[in-house]
Amino acid sequence: MPARAIYRSVLCAVAMIGAISTAYGLSLEEITVKLEREGYTQIREMKSGKITTFQAVKNGKAVSLVVDSSGRFKELP
Which of 1, 16, 31, 73 is most exposed, with the fewest beta carbons within 10 Å of its own? Predict the structure, then answer.
């Protein structure tokens, strides 16, 4: 097999692994650590169908958050 074909195969495999890991997203532990680093405490996962939100406390105030598969989060109003 020519070196160029091997190189393309390796690149394709790496791209597929990246797509698979993004599709599965972060684990609950990874999300919890990320939120704790941002100052949130008492983090609880709240499942509701396909959407998972989180309840937490920041600066003494209860907040609801949504976290996407890449770990970005946003407080809900």
Answer: 1
